[in-house]
Write a structure and sequence with these properties.
single chain; alpha+beta; four-stranded mixed sheet; 11 helices; binds pyridoxal-5'-phosphate
Length: 465
């Protein structure tokens, strides 16, 4: 290396393009490789301005430290890391308690990589229970507009998904639609407690009552699995009297994403069963643990331990009082944003951040046709760094476009004001200089992956390609 060439950006690795095709032939200094990767990531969006995501984008320094300290802990090695296993077990009991399991100390539950894995486990348990009850043929499950993980579950595990289309001006699954979609092979009904499309809670009490009526009439005892991916760590604190969990005897399992409103870093989910007996033995694999054995039931084998550990940290750090304060603060920001959106006089609010009705999100649509659409607005906002999803409602409402902002820990009133000012500016620009033709969903960019695209109506057996 010639003298003077020791500046990082004068080193050979940085004087040509980064390797991107075949496996690289040569090595480079770690500082150089780091700089290449670090700098390339500058093109990513700013996660805290990404209001399309439900997931954690802010954690405190202690959480960061724990994540870094636990980098080398494999959660599957229960015998080697017994205290990691112990912290996970404590967290399971805490979540079971939070959701009113009859006996939180003895019921089954597990951390997962997210709600998708947790949903698959809940679905698989329902499938095994259904078969044990004598079910034959292809089982089905009934739901409203669901997150894409349920379509995945149906296709991967050969189960029929029956999504109830949204009739009239409905935005959630309605209990009075259930009878027509259930039959003797219905292995579960899955209400979403915090819908992906709108953030609204589905009516779990109503669903449960409708299934009670169906049992009286037809003798079908259909269990409920609640997909509480985002609502599971909100309602217990911000709307504690809202009944949606194990207080309803028909609810046999619940999933939630620790890495959404649970405030844990990415890669944390929870699956909890009402009672140990609700998790069929066939799904349990015993592993060595301190000279004995421990039940495990996961789709993954190796998985990082830091997420469950950091979730436990968040639980003991905040407790019920702390979670209530954090979540109420975010709801207040959501309500502030909703009020500001109303003030712009072009939007109608579908969800305005009411903790009794939905999650810490705001969802809105245009009241008329101003000559631009929500994809145009989403695109304009992107030029200021805001990532806000615009997408069509699910069947049968697929002609209607909505916009949704999910607010999370770390989003402040001040940021909401900055966003509102940018919204007003973008709307002014669209009025003055409208696009000659409005953007389509595809042109506006694809950060709407958390919303399952409109699905074919009625009963689809994993027909989407
Ligand atoms: C996010 C979400 C999921 C998927 O959860 P992951 O944690 O991202 O795997 C499932 N259902 C609903 C309702 C969601 O919001």
């Amino acid at each position: 290396m010639s003298e003077g060439a020791d500046d990082l950006f004068a080193l050979p690795g940085l004087s040509r393009s980064a390797p991107r095709g075949g496996f690289p032939a040569h090595e480079m200094f770690p500082q150089v490789a780091y700089e290449i990767v670090h700098d390339e990531l500058m093109l990513d969006g700013v996660s805290r301005m990404n209001l399309a995501t439900f997931c954690t984008t802010w954690v405190d320094d202690q959480a960061r430290r724990l994540m870094s300290e636990c980098l080398d802990k494999n959660i599957v090695d229960k015998d080697e890391y017994p205290q990691t296993a112990e912290l996970e077990r404590r967290a399971v009991r805490m979540v079971a308690d939070l959701w009113h399991a009859p006996d939180p100390a003895t019921t089954h539950g597990t951390s997962t990589i997210g709600s998708s894995e947790a949903a698959m486990l809940g679905g698989l348990a329902a499938k095994f229970r259904w078969r044990k009850r004598g079910g034959t043929g292809t089982p089905n499950f009934v739901c409203g507009p669901v997150q894409v993980c349920w379509e995945k579950f149906a296709r991967y595990f050969d189960v029929e998904i029956r999504q109830i289309p949204l009739r009239g001006d409905r935005l959630t699954m309605h209990p009075d639609d259930l009878a027509e979609h259930c039959d003797a092979n219905t292995m579960m009904v899955v209400p979403t407690f915090g819908q992906t499309y709108t953030g609204l809670f589905e009516d779990v009490v109503g669903v449960s009552a409708a299934l009670d009526a169906l049992q009286r009439e037809k003798d079908w005892d259909i269990p409920i699995h609640v997909d509480a991916a985002s609502g599971g760590f909100l309602a217990p604190f911000a709307a504690p009297d809202l009944v949606w969990d194990f207080r309803l005897p028909r609810v046999k399992s619940i999933n939630a994403s620790g890495h959404k409103t649970g405030l844990a870093p990415l890669g944390a989910g929870w699956a909890i069963w009402r009672d140990a007996a609700d998790l069929p033995e066939e799904l349990i694999f015993d592993v060595d643990y301190l000279g004995g054995s421990m039940a495990t039931f996961n789709l993954n084998f190796s998985r990082p331990g830091g997420q469950a550990i950091t979730q436990y940290y968040e639980f003991i750090r905040l407790g019920r009082a702390g979670y209530a304060r954090v979540q109420s603060a975010i709801y207040r920001v959501a309500q502030h944003l909703a009020a500001g959106l109303r003030g712009l006089e072009v939007f109608e609010l579908i969800h305005d951040g009411d903790p009794q009705r939905g999650i810490t999100a705001v969802c809105w649509r245009l009241t008329g046709d101003p000559g631009w659409n929500l994809y145009d607005l989403s695109d304009r906002l992107r030029s200021r760094g805001w990532l806000i999803a615009a997408y069509p409602l699910p069947a049968d409402r697929g002609e209607e476009t909505v916009m949704r902002a999910v607010l999370r820990h770390g989003f402040t009133v001040d940021m909401a004001d900055l966003l509102l000012a940018d919204l007003a500016r973008c709307i002014r620009q669209l009025r003055q200089r409208p696009f000659s033709t409005s953007l389509t969903r595809e042109e506006a960019g694809g950060f709407t992956h958390t919303a399952s695209p409109a699905v074919p109506q009625t009963t689809i057996a994993a027909s989407r390609s």
